[in-house]
Amino acid sequence: MKIVRDTQFIDPSDQGASAAIGNFDGVHLGHQAVIDIARARAEQLNAPLGVMTFEPHPREFFAPETQPFRLMNADAKAHRLEKIGVEKLYELPFNSILSSLEADQFAQQIIMDSLALRHVVIGQDFCFGKGRKGTADDLRNFGDQMGFGVTIAEMVQMDMGEVSSTNIRAALSQGRPGDAAAMLGHWHRIEGQVIRGEQRGRELGYPTANMSISGLHPPKFGVYAVKIDVLAGANAGSYHGAASIGVRPMFGQNTANCETYLFDFKGDLYGAQISVGLVEFLRPELKFDTIDALITQMDADCAKAREILQNV
């Protein structure tokens, strides 16, 4: 997959795609349905399959003080889109210039002049242009005028309700990663670089790979059975494990992070990029009276996680 971030200097080979447009936070089943429509049109047009998205997320640009809400950082989103077969990722810088374009200017300057998209697919709730004044119907009208096709996709419904990033965040906040996964079509993953911690896990006999969750919507704090992908390097591969997400109340006030113990793993992961998939919530964060009590609970957590992951 090629990532295109510059709309000023476009290689002709990166133009002419059939592209889905949106933020695609989480790349959930609703997003995948939109992308699948773009995929079908790409095959009909003999065109590459593209996705247009925006970094930073427009909400982060307009309200930087907002509470973390993202399900995925940009790298995790790109990895997921590549896995489902996207060939061109148009990751447009969302800045004062892009946000000031009127809806018709966005259609003309970005969709037509820069990227020369042949077909675009959007959700029913898609808004674009300055002040979010442009609607899905507006884009379809612009397509008729300017010469690109437009398909408006319907929302995806499940027994638990509408598939949306909002409902996925709610499931994660309530410690229901299975319900989140049902809407996502994949395990909810926290992805990033392994950073150095305070080495407490190693001292307890449970060395962990630590990652920041800054900027991401925090799942319910506690311990999870997880599936881990080490994305590159000598230790690249898939592993089972247990992860603790939270502020570590046993050791005072701390910044929330994700600490993952990989079962039966020996090696150095510092600096590696890993992806931690939340499979099942085991228990909330607890403060124990003694270190021995904490270790006993960690033993039980890992035994339970191993049992769960054998059947996943």
The residue fraction in helices comes out at 25-40%
Q: Round the mean pLDDT to the nearest integer and report it.
A: 93
Rg from alpha-carbon coordinates: 21 Å
Order of helices and strands: EEHEHHEHHEEEHEEEHHEHEEEEEH
Shape: elongated
List unreliable stretches of 5+ residues: none
- Assigned CATH class of the largest domain: Alpha Beta
Number of folding domains?
A: 2
CATH topology of the largest domain: Rossmann fold
Structural class: alpha/beta
DSSP strand count: 16
InterPro entries: FAD_synthase (IPR015864), Riboflavin_kinase (IPR023468), Riboflavin_kinase_bac (IPR002606), Riboflavin_kinase_bac/euk (IPR015865), Riboflavin_kinase_dom_sf (IPR023465), Rossmann-like_a/b/a_fold (IPR014729)
GO molecular function, one term: riboflavin kinase activity
Function: Catalyzes the phosphorylation of riboflavin to FMN followed by the adenylation of FMN to FAD.
Domain Riboflavin kinase: 183-310
